[in-house]
Specification:
The chain is built from 13 helices and 2 strands, in the order αββαααααααααααα. The chain has 313 residues and is mainly alpha-helical. The protein has a two-stranded antiparallel ribbon with strand order 1-2. Strand 1 and strand 2 form a beta hairpin. Helix 4 packs antiparallel against helix 7.
């Protein structure tokens, strides 16, 4: 018998080998996309809860109406803002508190930081903790506490004044003293916070600068003005800008302490914004107030950066 050969096996079409360049591009693409995937939750959260409200508020500022019954109004809200005497009252109150409170608070904070940084002070850690403690007190709790302390008839402050023979003061019932009460609360609450910031800046000043100044015969006051203040210039700029922005946005303390009274003497821009938005539901006008406040903050911040920033060399 003659052996027969097996039938040939028909092979399918050959697959092309994977290109190494394409694989490398895919790997690079995955590596490049990974940071964006990791950032995606934060970016989405920022877009939904930060960016969208900012844009929507800007659009609302060009509408008028109460609640959901709104219609386009162009620049009517901004023209109304310029003719609104209550807005200018709130702006004047905020400015007066700012001019008095920020220099007072930052001056006390700087002196406190210099004292806490002195080598002769014992138990410095305990003193620093005590100075910073008011900053961790809740704003509402602070307002309620001072509302009791500053009562005219049975407040602790007036009791102390009467103990030394001074007349009682109607702290929360007279316009001038009501504004000074707000200044007092803000100074008490934030002086220690700024003192800790200044203390951190003082500890970074080289001791050689003070030693050189002492060799030149500079006294304590001269060393403070010629060494300490220039060395703390960036920190001073930071606290001035931050305190200015915070005071322009002032709401919690006067709202709890005086409710904006008496006779709108402690009404601030943020409180007026709140009243229009959440008491009268005029969200368009409230948004216009918010953007006017934003513009004011930006202008003052730029002026302060210009005046206190480093000069071009």
């Amino acid at each position: 018998m003659t052996a027969t050969a097996p039938p040939p096996v028909l092979a399918g079409p050959a697959r092309p080998a994977a290109r190494p360049g394409r694989a490398r591009r895919r790997a690079r693409l995955r590596r490049a996309a990974l940071p964006y995937l990791l950032l995606a939750p934060a970016l989405i959260t920022f877009g939904v809860f930060k960016a969208y409200p900012v844009v929507d508020s800007l659009l609302l500022s060009f509408t008028t109406g109460s609640g959901t019954a709104t219609r386009a109004a162009g620049l009517a809200n901004y023209r109304r803002l310029l003719d609104d005497p209550l807005f200018w009252t709130a702006l004047r109150n905020t400015g007066e508190i700012l001019v008095v409170q920020v220099p007072l608070m930052l001056g006390l904070a700087l002196l406190t930081a210099v004292a806490l940084n002195a080598a002769l002070v014992r138990w410095r850690a305990a003193w620093r903790l005590g100075v910073f403690m008011p900053a961790v007190t809740g704003l509402v709790a602070t307002g309620v506490m001072f509302a009791f302390l500053l009562k005219r008839d049975d407040g602790a402050v007036n009791w102390l004044l009467s103990a030394v023979g001074l007349p009682a003061v109607d702290w929360l019932g007279q316009p001038f003293w009501a504004r000074m009460s707000v200044v007092l609360v803000l100074t008490w609450h934030y002086t220690g916070y700024n003192a800790v910031i200044y203390l951190a800046g003082l500890q970074s000043v080289p001791k050689e600068l003070y030693e050189a100044a002492m060799v030149d015969g500079a006294g304590p006051l001269r060393r403070f003005t010629a060494v300490t203040v220039p060395a703390l210039r960036p920190v001073l700029l930071f606290t001035v800008v931050l305190s200015t922005i915070g005071t322009l946005q002032l709401f919690d303390e006067p709202y709890v302490l005086t409710g904006g009274g008496p006779d709108n003497a402690t009404l601030t821009v943020s409180m007026y914004l709140y009243q229009n938005g959440f008491r009268y539901f005029d969200f368009g006008y409230a948004s216009a107030i918010a953007y006017a406040l934003t513009l004011l903050v930006a202008v003052l911040g730029a002026v302060q950066m210009r005046l206190m920033g480093e000069k071009d060399r």
